[in-house]
From TrEMBL:
UniProt keyword annotations, A-Z: Antibiotic resistance, ATP-binding, Cell membrane, Membrane, Nucleotide-binding, Translocase, Transport
Molecular function as annotated in GO: ATP binding; ATP hydrolysis activity
Annotated SUPFAM superfamilies: P-loop containing nucleoside triphosphate hydrolases (SSF52540)
Superkingdom of the organism of origin: Bacteria
Domain ABC transporter, residue spans: 5-235
Primary localization class, coarse: membrane
Keyword set includes Translocase: yes
InterPro entries membership: AAA+_ATPase, ABC_transporter-like_ATP-bd, ABC_transporter-like_CS, ABC_transporter_ATP-binding, DrrA, P-loop_NTPase
GO biological process: daunorubicin transport; doxorubicin transport; response to antibiotic
Name this polypeptide is given: ATP-binding cassette domain-containing protein
Length: 325
């Protein structure tokens, strides 16, 4: 296994706030690590350390083989960073934004223009390239921002809540772009407040709470760790709800719930409950529109692990960003 990112024992304090209390992170090359955590968990602080924007108080971290403290310049040459908000210059065109970044990264004028044209085409922005960024929609700005982070062909990309504020369709566009990056061999570290985003994209998920890693596994693995499955039945006729409720009560680990007017659900210990209910439904000749046995959702896993719902950036993560020029 080749690690693109590895961190051990990272700590960081801002005044009286302990943002990181000794976290470990590992990201295999060419994969996506989703980093989740509630408000104040330390997600953005960890990204800032890995991007060399701030230094840890203790611990070590290497990105693309380079130490973030001893070799920050080499780390910066290896990474791309897209923050929570689009960082493009609104008074420049799409082309000008990308060319400017290319020149700052040391590309020749011709090379910067060629790379800008390539990325604008890849992100479906070629026709808008000559327009000022201030005329772009939110989704277009996010795409331009992501394109800007790829100008230098980084081997590692940090996406810090990249789809914040986007509607579902635009979010899907960004997801497809992220998948395309990974197919090309890029490693992605993704922090997000959208749990379905982590479920859809991440190969592995790390959950951080109070500056510590409290869980690390694949999305399916995390769901299995929480334990239990949920059996859901939606009869074709609401008149059958009473009979179905009795069937579910016989196999559930607690009383059935009714999350929708025509839907009943109950947690069950194992998949044998499904066989029992299928037989009971057949014997009673009750037709169903939906019958499913599912693992907990990532939202349910998150709540179980942290005791709360996912949310956005934290006060602990709001320390000033300082970058050496």
């Amino acid at each position: 296994m080749t690690l693109a990112i590895e961190a051990h024992g990272l700590t960081k304090r801002f005044g009286s706030t302990q943002a990181l209390a000794g976290i470990d992170l590992e990201v295999e090359q060419g994969t996506i690590l989703g980093v989740l955590g509630p408000n104040g968990a330390g997600k953005t602080t960890a990204v800032r350390i890995l991007a060399t924007l701030i230094t840890p108080d203790s611990g070590t971290a290497r990105v693309a083989g380079y130490d973030v403290v001893k070799d920050p310049r080499e780390v910066r040459r290896s990474i791309g960073l897209t923050g929570q908000y689009a960082s493009v210059d609104e008074d420049l065109t799409g082309v000008q934004n990308l060319v400017m970044i290319g020149r700052l990264l040391g590309l020749s004028s011709r090379g910067a223009k060629a790379r800008a044209a390539e990325l604008l085409a890849e992100f479906d922005l070629a026709e808008a390239g000559s327009r000022l960024a201030k005329t772009y929609s939110g989704g277009m700005r996010r795409r331009l921002d992501l394109a800007a982070s790829l100008i230098g062909r980084p081997s590692v990309v940090y996406l810090d809540e990249p789809t914040t504020g986007l509607d579902p369709a635009k979010r899907d566009d960004v997801w497809n772009m992220v998948r395309s990056l990974v197919r090309q061999g890029t490693t992605v570290l993704l922090t997000t407040q959208y749990l379905e985003e982590a479920d859809a994209l991440a190969n592995v998920i790390t959950v951080i709470d109070h500056g510590l890693v409290i869980a690390h596994d694949t999305p399916q693995g995390l769901k299995r760790q929480v334990g239990g499955q949920t059996l859901e039945v939606r009869p074709l006729s609401v008149s059958d709800l009473g009979a179905v409720r009795g069937m579910l009560a016989a196999v559930g680990t607690r009383e059935p719930e009714q999350p929708a007017p025509d839907l009943l659900s109950v947690p069950v210990a194992d998949s044998s409950a499904l066989d029992y209910v299928v037989r009971q439904l057949a014997d009673a000749r009750i037709p169903v529109a939906e019958l499913a046995l599912r693992l907990p959702s990532l939202d349910e896993v998150f709540y179980s692990l942290t005791g709360g719902a996912a949310s956005g950036s934290a006060p602990a993560d709001s320390a000033p960003i300082l970058q050496e020029v």
